[in-house]
Amino acid sequence: MTSLFTFLFLLFAAVAQAISSSGSRLLVVLEDVAEKTQYSKFLGDLEGRGFQVSYETPKSESLSLFHLGERSYDHILFFPTKAKGLGPNLTANLLIKFINADGNILLALSAQKQAPTAVIAALSELDIHLPSERTGLVVDHFNYDVTSAAEKHDVLLLPTPGALRPGVKDFFSPATPNGELLAVPQAIGQVLGNGELLTPVLRAPSTAYSYNPKEEAEALGDDLFAAGKQLSLVTTVQARNSARLTVLGSADMLSDQWFDAKVQKVGGKAAVATVNREFAKRVTGWTFNEIGVLRVNWIEHHLNEEGQGNQSNPKIYRIKNDVTYSISMSEYEWDHWAAFKVPASDDLQLEFSMLSPFHRLSLKPTVSSEESTTYSTNFKLPDQHGIFNFKINHKRPFFNNIEEKNTVSVRHFAHDEWPRSYAISGAWPWIAGIGATVTGWSFFVAIWLFSKPTGKGESKKTR
Amino acid sequence: MAPKKSQTKDASAAAPVVTTGTTASAVPAVSAPSKKPSSAAVAAKSSDAWSSVATNILSHYQKTTPQRTKLIDLFMAFLVVVGGLQFVYCVVAGNYPFNAFLSGFSATVGQFVLTASLRIQTTEANKADFPSVSPERAFADYVVGSLILHFFCVNFIN
Description:
- The complex is a heterodimer.
- By secondary structure, chain A is an alpha+beta fold.
- Chain A is about 20% helix and about 30% strand.
- Chain B folds into two domains: about 1-65, no CATH class; about 65-155.
- Chain B is about 85% helix and about 0% strand.
- The interface of A and B includes residues 430 and 436 of A.
- Chain B: This is Dolichyl-diphosphooligosaccharide--protein glycosyltransferase subunit OST2.
């Protein structure tokens, strides 16, 4: 009976844990709470993953991101709204403050509804730029969906994005065994600045461009907002505090209609299903800290020399000591902590630094369990005494920033730690030199003392 | 000062006498049987002159130097040889470990300097410069100084 209770308790604990690594309170901001039926599958998925979803409209007076200086929600999800502004409870300043307080934001925009000024102001602070007049529609005459946008060409069909570049883990590409495509209907493209914190997830194909459907319906103007790969359809920002913000160019991607749609690319042979649902899961999962979250479990360093004490994390080392450094790391995967594996062609590096690094070494995985991987390295401390740091500075796209610093003193050799001269064969000639001098001197003194005869008389005489 | 003056006078007076003596007697004795061409005779003459100077200085040294000063000179020559060997070894084989070279080499140099001081203080000619230092006192100073030097060198070579 007790075992049954324990089992139930553990099961409950496991279920309760099946949420984001940084809290489960999710605020969904909609124009009208009734709109959520459009996104029922998407929101149902979020609730199924353990998020406590609250729905609010921008007009709601009870809406407040902070309560007594603390965040009221862990994550915010914005759906497009009609109003020009988002009201006094959701100003750009408050959104930035929310990010600074480690809150995550997912912004779903749409070309059909103008982006609110608060959102535009917040995004421009992050160096993400939206088309002027707050509207812009991305069209592509080579990658559109034949069934739904044969005329307007504004439903883009794209393959899954793949890894950003070699050495970066691919979080956002669901498996597509049957050539499923990503449908991006009525998207608004973003142009990114040069910020290091910005990472595009999904870029428009090179044949796409953005135009203003109201002003440029007949003919394109001279000044195109952006075209081709300049346009980012899904953009992520990870602030220095590892808070995440994702801009989704097309809110319709998340709707039930496009989760289930069959699409056919222009020139495609047959209609295929969309992978929007899986892609949406991954985008929200990343944004709301369900994937791509790293944790340092422990750090340990010790002397790696025979006949020496094996104390953990000593405060002081000597120059030229052999030292072992180990760090245990885990990665959060949807609902549990798993072993962190560094992507191929990437490295976890340790710096041994005083002002600037004296060593920058790759850590190798040594012990791997289900929940963690231990990375470690052995190295000889530099021939320089002072205050040093063991420093891990791991900043990679889509992973939260890891910055760990352990300070130790490195002393010089004590007087009795140098090898004796006779232990070094190179010193023997000079030892012999000293020996010859001393023996010669002894003989000299002895002869001097026993040979007084002639001089004495003379000296006495002169005295 | 008086003995010094007299010594230099003696030397200057003795030198011409000796040189004339050698030119007269030694040159024909040595060069006549071995060197026939007259062109080489000049060189042979000069070399003989130099060697006669050397032998003259040597005999003068052996005659006028007290035995203890000779002992000091022998010891100093020994130190120069030992120090020279160590220095040559350092140049040829490298100076690792440097502290060993420093202490080995400076032991000979220091010992040489101390011995030179002993020689200056015990020479009869310098008596007037050190009226308060007897040879026994000078020797005692020398022994103490040398022991300190040896201690430092052995300590430094580790």
